[in-house]
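Pipeline run #58 for the internal structure catalog. This entry was flagged by the ingest filter as a single-chain record with no existing model, so it goes straight to prediction. Upstream metadata was stripped on purpose; only the residue string is passed forward. Reviewer on rotation: M.T. Logging verbosity set to normal.
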Amino acid sequence: MKGVLAVNHFLNTEKFGGLYRALCLAAEKERIALEIKTNLELSTESPECDFVLFWDKDINLARRLEKEGLPVFNSADSIEKCDDKGRTYIELLGIVPQPKTLLAPKSFFEADYTEFVDKAAEILGLPLVFKESFGSFGEQVFLCETKEDILARISQRPFILQEFISSSRGRDKRLEVVGGRVVAAMERYNDNDFRSNVTNGGKMRPCKPDESECELAVSACERLGLCFGGVDILNGGLVCEVNSNAHIINITECTGIDAGAEIFREIRRRL
């Protein structure tokens, strides 16, 4: 079996390089020939392969590859739903519990959001969490203590405001779901930041999620149409975020479970 690992040409740091090498090694163990191709390369060529493992967020490229008849994992539609935090919230609304969330109204130029921020503070309370709609590794996520803090963060980029779950300050669980089941889980904790992300100095330890947490993670992935995904769950059983192509190195190192191999086994099963 031959696959293409689609990656972003412009994300060429060691962090991403290590991830791509780990995926290639996992594919080799599963007797899959995996070739790395960047979105720049794929923009001008059509690969000959059995499937594409799409580890990027270049949605239009993913859609084009699907139109050409290639099986793409995760699908363009699923990646798009997860890439936009506001879209993710809407898709999961009424499906799984989430922190109270407000989507900022769209503006086409720099605008005064004071009225929205005033109402958001009344509804969500302070402090609250400010999230730009697009971002990874806990970047573009801020804890705002005052309305002035919120206004200072606003740019022309779309954003959401979210209730701060104080009981989960610096703590959450990351559950890796593959093929409708939880294959690995870890607890992340950070005593120096309200975000638990390992990139921001958080630590990790393996954990055994309870049945309800597993059901939440699987339900979220099924709703979003994911073949595989990383689901972040806060204290109290609230789904915080869902990642269509989570950075699986940490959970693999933490738990000893090769998440990449699990993904390739599921792809083989689906083909």
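catalog note: The mean pLDDT is 96.
catalog note: Residues 14-29 form the longest helix (16 residues).
status: ready for reviewer M.T.
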